[in-house]
TrEMBL record:
Subcellular location: Cell inner membrane; Cytoplasm
Superkingdom of this protein's organism: Bacteria
Organism: Roseibium limicola
Functional note: Involved in targeting and insertion of nascent membrane proteins into the cytoplasmic membrane. Binds to the hydrophobic signal sequence of the ribosome-nascent chain (RNC) as it emerges from the ribosomes. The SRP-RNC complex is then targeted to the cytoplasmic membrane where it interacts with the SRP receptor FtsY. Interaction with FtsY leads to the transfer of the RNC complex to the Sec translocase for insertion into the membrane, the hydrolysis of GTP by both Ffh and FtsY, and the dissociation of the SRP-FtsY complex into the individual components.
Record protein name field: Signal recognition particle protein
GO terms, molecular function: 7S RNA binding; GTP binding; GTPase activity
Record's subunit section: Part of the signal recognition particle protein translocation system, which is composed of SRP and FtsY. SRP is a ribonucleoprotein composed of Ffh and a 4.5S RNA molecule.
A single BP term in Gene Ontology: SRP-dependent cotranslational protein targeting to membrane
Lineage of origin: Bacteria, Pseudomonadati, Pseudomonadota, Alphaproteobacteria, Hyphomicrobiales
PANTHER family: SIGNAL RECOGNITION PARTICLE 54K PROTEIN SRP54 (PTHR11564), SIGNAL RECOGNITION PARTICLE SUBUNIT SRP54 (PTHR11564:SF5)
Gene responsible for this protein: ffh
Length: 448
């Protein structure tokens, strides 16, 4: 899985991580090589473009953290971007199927003939039965291929999973309804509906899928697609999603896929998560698709990634402690404010930060009154950046003409500069006040 991409990337990073300093040229060269590696891995072009653009932007804006090399920093940025491209780690994307619905939960399996649909149905049913201790009923709705229903029955027997008795002459919708009724009566937790495939997508197939969907009201509709077909698998997922609506993708034959283009582009192109991957013909060859784990596997640089994470945390803690000390002494100039704004932005904004601190409701109100909106952080940092060093250290120097210059330099009105100065005064007063109540400030800043 992903071997060729993995090899290419490690070659690129070996060159980068050994060096003490990186020029813009080095970074650009690395990005060009990463771009080439992704294209060779058959990743969709728009996905490649957006990937390298985002890495470039993040690399340019990145603060260089003490104790790691710039090359290691780049590895971390590429890793994080890879996780994002694969669907991110938030919001329950990837990582298996969702059974969070009243029983019996219907899972409808769709896909082309030969993609591994029946095999994957059996794999999922086996895992739900053995690992998750659910009572599962499988039903084949494939009335076109004579042996299909029999194939599922055999799989059921091999894996100790019940299958719906075969009744000759019934159509897919009838079978789906019968399966749901049997599951309800039999106290099953999950019903797996293995639908019929075709060689290509065609209109009758889509109509049939929509009818089965309406009859069974499935909680999950999983598209089974062959990873070896690369971008065709991605286009297939797009079509199925547009016509039938899918909740996720199971990618089969990942065991033979050294390139990984389908897995890498799927989420970015279709907006639907890869939930499971098939890694062999045996009925236990099924894995959850976790973006972070996959990114770790592709890069093979887990130690560098965690090194950079730890170093960044240490830097943040150091800065917070330094600032807490200054504030306790009653120093809080505009440099500190700018640093504070940057930190808050990193933390997800003022309101989320305030939400974490107990007993600061009153302070929050005051800050709201000072117009401290999360969205204006950047502009405020820009205003402070347009001031001279002395002005930042001694805000009282900022009289009318200087304010005008600062406003022009940062592209805002003088009234915005005034607002910022007022906010700074209020914050400085508050900090002084809180500094007297020792402990609370330390706690607050430690939490930053
Ligand atoms: P269906 O027509 O979509 O139901 O496809 P099948 O489930 O009958 O699978 C077609 C072939 O692909 C079978 O020989 C399976 O053993 C094989 N297959 C399915 N999934 C995988 C996988 O993840 N890896 C490998 N190597 N083979 C698979």
């Amino acid at each position: 899985m992903f071997e060729s991409l993995s090899d290419r990337l490690s070659g690129i990073f070996d060159k980068l991580t050994g060096r003490g300093a990186l020029s813009e040229n080095d970074v650009n060269e690395a990005l060009r090589e990463i771009r080439r590696a992704l294209i060779e891995a058959d990743v969709a072009l728009p996905v490649v473009r957006s990937f390298t653009d985002k890495v470039r932007n993040r690399a340019v804006g990145a603060e260089v953290v003490k104790s790691v090399t710039p090359g290691q920093m780049v590895v971390k940025i590429v890793h994080d971007q890879l996780v994002e491209m694969l669907g991110g780690d938030a919001g329950g994307l990837g990582g298996g199927i969702d059974l969070n619905a009243p029983a019996p939960v219907a899972i409808m399996m769709v896909g082309l003939q030969g993609s591994g649909k029946t095999t994957t149905t059996g794999k999922i049913a086996r895992r739900l039965t053995q690992r998750d201790k659910r009572k599962v009923l499988m039903a084949s709705l494939d009335t076109r291929r004579p042996a299909a229903q029999e194939q599922l029955k055999v799989l059921g027997e091999q894996n100790d999973v019940d299958t719906l008795p075969i009744v000759e002459g019934q159509g897919p919708v009838e079978i789906a309804k019968r399966a749901m009724t049997a599951a309800r009566l039999g106290g099953y937790d999950v019903v797996m509906l293995d639908t019929a495939g075709r060689i290509h997508i065609d209109e009758p197939l889509m109509v049939e899928m929509s009818e089965v969907k309406a009859a069974a009201n499935p909680h999950e509709i999983l598209l089974v697609a062959d990873a070896l077909t690369g971008q065709d698998a991605v286009n297939l997922a797009k079509s199925f999603d547009e016509r039938v609506g899918i909740t996720g993708i199971a990618l089969t034959r990942m065991d033979g896929d050294g390139r990984g283009g389908a897995a890498l582009s799927m989420q970015a192109v279709t907006g639907k998560p890869v939930k499971l991957i098939g890694t062999g013909e045996k009925s236990d060859a099924l894995e959850d698709f976790y973006p972070k784990r996959i990114a770790d596997r592709i890069l093979g640089m887990g130690d560098i990634v965690s090194l950079v994470e730890k170093a960044s945390e240490a830097i943040d803690a150091e800065k917070a402690a330094e600032m807490a000390k200054k504030m306790q002494k009653g120093h809080f100039d505009l440099n500190d404010l700018a640093e504070q704004l940057r930190q808050m932005e990193k933390m997800g904004g003022m309101s989320s930060m305030m939400g974490m601190l107990p007993g600061v409701g009153k302070m929050k109100k005051q800050l709201d009154a000072a117009n401290l909106d999360d969205n204006v952080f950047k502009r405020q940092v820009a205003i402070i950046s347009s001031m001279t060093k002395q002005e930042r250290a001694k805000p009282e120097l900022l009289k009318a003409s200087r304010k005008k210059r600062v406003a022009a330099g940062s592209g805002v009105d003088v009234s915005d500069v005034n607002k910022l100065l007022k906010m700074h005064r209020q914050m400085a007063d508050m900090m002084k006040m809180m500094g007297k109540k020792k402990g609370m400030l330390g706690k607050m800043m430690g939490g930053l």
